[in-house]
Amino acid sequence: MARSCEVCGKGPVHGHQISHAHNVSSRVWYPNVQRFKVVVGKTRRRMKVCTRCLRSGKIVKAVS
Question: What's the domain count of the chain?
Answer without folding.
Answer: 1
